[in-house]
Amino acid sequence: MPDLSGIVKAYDIRGVVGEQLDASLVRDFGAAFALLIKAESPSVVIGHDMRDSSPGLSAAFAEGVTSQGLDVVSIGLCSTDELYFASGSLNMPGAMFTASHNPAKYNGIKMCRAGASPVGQDTGLSEIRDTVEQGVPEFEGKTGSVSERDVLADYAAYLRNLVDLSHSRPLKIVVDAGNGMGGHTVPTVFAGLPIEVVPMYFELDGSFPNHEANPLDPKNIVDLQAKVREVGADAGVAFDGDADRCFVVDERGEPVSPSAITALVAVRELAKEPGGTVIHNLITSKGVPEIVAEHGGKPVRTRVGHSFIKAEMARTGAIFGGEHSAHYYFRDFWRADTGMLAALHVLAALGEQDGPLSALTQDFSRYAASGEINSTVTDQVARMLAVKDAYADKPGVEIDELDGLTVQLPGGAWFNLRPSNTEPLLRLNVEAADRAAVEALTDDVLVIVRG
């Protein structure tokens, strides 16, 4: 039996094309997915990003699905959140072929049930892996059919209906698509809005010739920052490769933290539904739950990861959820993450008032943060325990282990240390009142982590 543990991750399937992932294996994944959801739906919707390998792999997956008697609706080139829109609006399970911001040699599959409900290790992905490893059973019945459908215009109209920009003052924004799927979706979503878009790297190119399509890495937004200053834009927006995450810079080219965006969008959603619940992961700034509570909302803290966010949103009926990684989840979007909808909210908030984005977001940026700092370690458990032991007996310290190790210090500073699921890394996030306090606490923890 093949061992697929290296490519079947917590939330998706991802690997190097030609070495770990090929058409034959992907066909088996398609058949196994069909077996998982056959009792729930007669059809599956499939989309793919701009990588050279994506059309062929998505076609192989479709062949696997139809081999089990289910039909396929192919929406072709799309962003991940456009696939979620199709899954939600058509009420079909879905599969998206993308490796997000990973290099060109990678590809992968993000799967969901009807209504964009996630398929992760605990919600079907492990069963899919087991089926493929043990051998997919042959289906004796009639093979399903494949049809094509373009949902881009419907996706754009749906988003514009959720955020009213009709009263916005004219805005100029720079959009860096990173040669990813934002270059495909932005022109249609922004058509007819009072927004002048200055495009950067809209050409679809899965080799990412300009920079890695990961806007959370500071080196990948340098071009965006420079262009915003050069053209005098009101803001800049960068999307990752599959355009389900967005990162924002203000009119000065300065980054706006995803926590500040989470708080801003949460306030707007709470204005529509007072008293609503807002989900935030435990690495998000503590300013987020503070601001949510101040605006009459109910903040709920959860583990990092979209499957945890979506599950908690379903349990609580939350109206919105945000993560430090620039994933934003909306109940009005089937609890799925969509960077595009978050971007529209930010631009609507900016366009409704006369001040610059830096002034608008200042109220939502209360603390200094380190960003995520990775350390390669030989023994994750031992290093985590060493950090816990170093802080456990200090007066006024509170420790919880909901996701890794979170240490709350007297005076408000805190840090979270958690292991990577796929690499020998520990990930550190620190927040404190000011930059000096962040740097001091970061240094203290890293001395222990790195021995």
Automatic annotation (TrEMBL):
Organism field: Amycolatopsis rhabdoformis
Family designation: Belongs to the phosphohexose mutase family.
InterPro entries associated with the record: A-D-PHexomutase_a/b/a-I, A-D-PHexomutase_a/b/a-I/II/III, A-D-PHexomutase_a/b/a-II, A-D-PHexomutase_a/b/a-III, A-D-PHexomutase_C, A-D-PHexomutase_C_sf, Alpha-D-phosphohexomutase_SF
Cofactors, names only: Mg(2+)
A Pfam match: PGM_PMM_I
Keyword field: Isomerase, Magnesium, Metal-binding, Phosphoprotein
Family matches, as Gene3D superfamilies: Alpha-D-Glucose-1,6-Bisphosphate, subunit A, domain 3, Alpha-D-phosphohexomutase, C-terminal domain
Domain named Alpha-D-phosphohexomutase C-terminal: residues: 372-445
Residues of the Alpha-D-phosphohexomutase alpha/beta/alpha domain: 8-134, 154-253, 261-366
Classification via PANTHER family: PHOSPHOMANNOMUTASE (PTHR43771)
SUPFAM superfamilies listed in its UniProt record: Phosphoglucomutase, C-terminal domain, Phosphoglucomutase, first 3 domains
Name of the protein: Phosphomannomutase/phosphoglucomutase
